[in-house]
């Protein structure tokens, strides 16, 4: 039995260009539901790319020294997403918010084009219709891939990796594994998907893919070793994975069961139908169908535990369904005459266009709910701090999530917390306790002791704080208002000399 479907000969580039253009149109419509980049992490990544650009011809960041009170201090921090930041270099010359939006649109579209290429290479009839289903099948998927984060590039790499394992292309497997280790080395996910693909290849070909598995492992190890932050990248990887496994909030929370039906229903229905049919005709499946099907089951389990799994899930559901259901569909289609086939194709195109048109507004609404409507929200405050503080001076930011939006416009200062408040707890437990009392419970006395303990002069309160905590801290007796706009308030300790 063939290990994977033969790649069709001819000129695939026009179809790939059309697939890219369709994805770019969809992601552009979703992306511009808000003027601000979708989420806040995209600003961090574009700023990292700008720091890589400033360090050229050495294509990596100089020392990271902006979160010295946390476990991300300079001697422990590693650029976890180094390969992704290199990919962002073409966008690092643009204004940060525009660069983040355009980069996410480009790489998400490129990844989806890889999905179309896999469907076409598998010989799936009606690949364009299946592609449309996968592209717009989940509003949360569209929102997630509109964020300028590593999964926008990783999706294409992971789809290509599974295809290469099924096709037994050892060289491609090794190169893609290396690229994954540079772009987003989330090893438990990558190992699970690679293992599923190897198992599928074994079942489909009836011989174990030992060399392909070794190619994946070797490429991954080389990617981790040949890294500019080696060996800190290994300890930093362990730190990030331990935090991710412990979190159950935000994008780390499980996808609610209701969301599986409401958001993934159009994808799960054909996938489950394919599972039923495959259970009856499992000997007729080739290695690519098995590999993508088993990987889809792994990603379903991941999504049930972490909502972030939906970044990768839809294409795998669609590929398996297409491989299993395309055969019966083609046999039914062959019974129709040419006129009937043309009519059915037109109906399919009409339904696909209507489906995409229905899903895009839903995705835009999800984007609006998960993004601020204020572009460059903390830019003015960040610039004010840059102009009124000494180089490297510590600024206390009231929420860790505001670090990215301050840092992207102001690398002049250092900050108390960033990304995840637990990183502050790991490095400075005493400061963390004061931080929590001040900003979670709104205790002015704790804020005053925090300023004394850290030696900071300025505190940034933003609209991410609970309104009551914001009100109490804004009226704290030991502070005065130094700067205010509609998104934030900068307090200065009254015992500190003004700049």
Task: Itemize the secondary structure elements and their pairings.
Blueprint: H1 13-31, H2 41-54, H3 82-87, H4 96-121, H5 127-136, H6 139-144, H7 151-167, H8 170-183, H9 187-205, H10 210-225, H11 232-246, H12 257-280, H13 287-305, H14 313-334, H15 338-369, H16 379-388, E1 394-397, H17 403-407, E2 414-415, H18 422-427, H19 429-439, H20 444-454, E3 458-462, H21 467-474, E4 479-484, E5 488-493
Parallel strand pairs: 1-2, 1-3
Antiparallel strand pairs: 3-5, 4-5
Helix pairs in contact: 1-4, 1-15, 2-4, 4-5, 4-7, 4-14, 5-14, 5-15, 7-8, 7-9, 7-13, 8-10, 9-13, 12-14, 13-14, 19-20
Shape: elongated
Q: Supply Rg.
A: 25 Å
Question: Uncertain regions: pLDDT < 50 for 5+ in a row?
Answer: 1-9
For the secondary structure, the number of strands is 5
Count every helix, treating DSSP H or I runs of 4 or more residues as helices: 21
Structural class: mainly alpha
What is the ordering of alpha helices and beta strands? HHHHHHHHHHHHHHHHEHEHHHEHEE
The overall average pLDDT, rounded, is 88
> The biggest beta sheet, please?
5 strands, mixed
**What does the oligomeric state look like here?**
single chain
End-to-end Cα distance:
75 Å
Strand content: under 5%
| Helix content estimate | 55-70%
Task: Give the strand order of the largest sheet, numbering strands 1, 2, ... along the chain.
Answer: 2-1-3-5-4
Give the structure's gist in a few sentences.
By secondary structure, the protein is mainly alpha-helical.
């Amino acid at each position: 039995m063939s290990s994977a479907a033969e790649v069709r000969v001819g000129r695939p580039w026009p179809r790939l260009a059309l697939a890219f253009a369709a994805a770019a149109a969809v992601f552009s419509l979703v992306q511009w539901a808000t003027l601000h980049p979708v989420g806040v992490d995209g600003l961090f990544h574009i700023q990292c790319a700008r720091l890589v650009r400033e360090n050229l011809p050495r294509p990596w960041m100089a020392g990271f020294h902006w979160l010295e009170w946390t476990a991300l201090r300079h001697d422990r921090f590693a650029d976890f997403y180094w390969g992704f930041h290199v990919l962002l270099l073409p966008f690092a010359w643009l204004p940060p918010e525009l660069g983040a939006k355009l980069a996410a649109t480009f790489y998400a579209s490129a990844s989806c084009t890889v999905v179309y290429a896999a469907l076409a290479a598998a010989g799936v009839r009606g690949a364009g219709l299946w592609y449309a289903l996968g592209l717009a099948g989940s509003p949360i998927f569209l929102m997630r891939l509109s964020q300028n984060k590593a999964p926008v590039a990783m999706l294409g790499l992971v789809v290509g990796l599974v295809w290469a394992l099924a096709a037994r292309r050892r060289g491609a497997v090794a190169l893609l594994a290396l690229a994954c280790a540079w772009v987003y080395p989330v090893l438990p996910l990558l190992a699970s998907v690679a293992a599923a693909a190897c198992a599928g290849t074994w079942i489909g070909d009836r011989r174990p893919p030992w060399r392909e598995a070794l190619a994946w492992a070797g490429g991954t190890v080389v990617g981790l070793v040949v890294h500019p932050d080696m060996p800190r990248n290994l300890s930093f990887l362990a730190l990030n994975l331990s935090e991710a496994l412990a979190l159950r909030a935000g994008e780390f929370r499980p996808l609610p069961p209701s969301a599986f039906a409401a958001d993934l229903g159009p994808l799960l229905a054909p996938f489950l139908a394919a599972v039923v049919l495959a259970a009856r005709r499992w000997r007729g499946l080739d290695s690519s169908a098995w590999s993508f099907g088993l990987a889809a089951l792994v990603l379903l389990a991941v999504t049930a535990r972490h909502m972030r799994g939906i970044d990768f899930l839809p294409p795998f559901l669609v590929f398996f369904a297409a491989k299993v259901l395309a055969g019966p569909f083609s046999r039914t289609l062959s019974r129709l005459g040419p006129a009937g086939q043309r009519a059915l194709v037109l109906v399919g195109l009409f339904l696909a266009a209507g489906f995409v048109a229905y899903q895009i507004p839903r995705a835009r609404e999800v984007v609006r709910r998960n993004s601020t409507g204020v572009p460059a929200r903390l830019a003015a405050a960040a610039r004010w701090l840059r102009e009124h503080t000494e180089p490297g001076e510590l600024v206390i930011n009231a929420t860790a999530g505001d670090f990215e939006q301050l840092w992207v416009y102001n690398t002049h200062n250092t900050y108390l917390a960033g990304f995840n408040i637990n990183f502050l707890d790991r490095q400075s437990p005493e400061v963390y306790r004061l931080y929590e009392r001040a900003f979670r419970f709104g205790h002015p006395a704790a804020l005053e002791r925090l300023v004394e303990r850290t030696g900071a002069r300025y505190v940034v309160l933003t609209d991410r704080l609970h309104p009551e905590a914001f009100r109490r801290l804004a009226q704290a007796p030991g502070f005065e208002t130094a700067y205010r706009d509609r998104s934030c308030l900068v307090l200065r300790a009254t015992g500190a000399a003004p700049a």
